[in-house]
Amino acid sequence: MKPRIAIISVISDVYTDQRVLRTAGVLKELNCEVLIIGRRVTSCIPHIQTNYTIYHLQTIFKKTAFMYAVFNFLLLCKLFFLVVKYRKKHILLYANDLDTLLPNYIVSKIFSLPLVYDSHEIFTEVPELQHKPFRKKIWKSIEKTIIPKLPFAITVNESIAEYYQSQYRIPFYAIRNISAQIRVEKLKSRSELHLPDSKKIIIIQGTGINIHRGAEELVEAMQYLNDDYLLLIVGGGDVVNTLKKQTAELNLHQKI
Predict the structure, then answer these.
(1) How far apart are alpha carbons 58 and 38 in whole angstroms?
(2) Domains in the chain: how many in total?
(3) Which of the residues 45, 141, 199, 207 could staple to 230 if both were Cys, CB 3.0 to 4.6 A apart?
(4) Does 115 lie in the same domain as 61?
(5) Per-residue DSSP letters for 176-221?
(6) How far apart are alpha carbons 140 and 142 in whole angstroms?
(7) Whole-angstrom distance, CA of residue 161 vs CA of residue 154
């Protein structure tokens, strides 16, 4: 039997995308060699050790239509190169979200390879595409053209699965995002974390603290809470600099 290899594509920072890393872990347990193709971002943490081969594609644009276009072209080239390189193995292509689906679909058709599509959200309805009808139309056309031709796909919950099944009449399976179990030997105290003992802590965390996901409203709401509350913003995203500016404008440095 030929050895098996899985090529996973994602446009985010590989090291902080827990769903992608869990997917890679499952495929590794199934005795697949795992290659992950992601995008190089400034927050990448290259010193994290994994059991997978990780490729970072460099784009000079950030969060623009050009970035998506360049990334998809580079991804298409990289997938083509890797499939040719590993052609003597059984190859599985795994596309995370709509912004990696087109190159994967093209390569899967050229080489007759199995393709798994993992939709992390209803991509065409994300806040970043609202009020941008041309971009939304392009992504919607990709979605409508490719998804009905997939044998099956997966997503993060039942409601999104039901939405896509009603739209495209193909099976969508829900695989939920659940944090990996971590054993903590000793919890750090507030003093060790340099947090006041008297405050009630509110935390928003993640690598996707992005526009119109509720973070802006959370910062604004802090002005209506008394001084017993402290908001911690932990992670990153395209709205973080806006939140810092908002905090300064509302004079909330003591609360955030």
Answers:
(1) 9
(2) 2
(3) 199
(4) yes
(5) ---PPP---SSPPPTTTTT--TTSEEEEEEES---TTSSHHHHHHH
(6) 5
(7) 7
This prediction has a pTM of 0.81
Q: CB of 231 within 8 A of CB of 208?
A: no
Which position has the token pair 């970072």? 56
Answer positive or negative: Cα dihedral of 11, 14, 16, 18.
Answer: positive
What pLDDT, on a 0 to 100 scale, did the predictor assign at position 66? 85
Q: Is residue 228 in some structural domain? A: yes
> Half-sphere exposure (CA, 13 Å, Cβ side) for 131?
3
| Range of the structural domain that residue 155 is part of | 4-174
> Do 44 and 71 contact (CB within 8 A), yes or no?
no
**What CA–CA distance (Å, rounded) separates 16 from 176?**
17
Closest CA to 3 of 28, 22, 31: 31
Q: Are 224 and 231 in contact (CB under 8 A)?
A: no
**Domain with 167 in it: what CATH number?**
3.40.50.2000
Express each pLDDT in 166-178 by its tens digit.
999 999 999 998 8
Q: Are 104 and 135 in contact (CB under 8 A)?
A: no
The residue that leads in pLDDT, 125 or 141, is 141
104-128 pLDDT, tens digit per residue, is 999 999 999 999 999 999 988 887 7
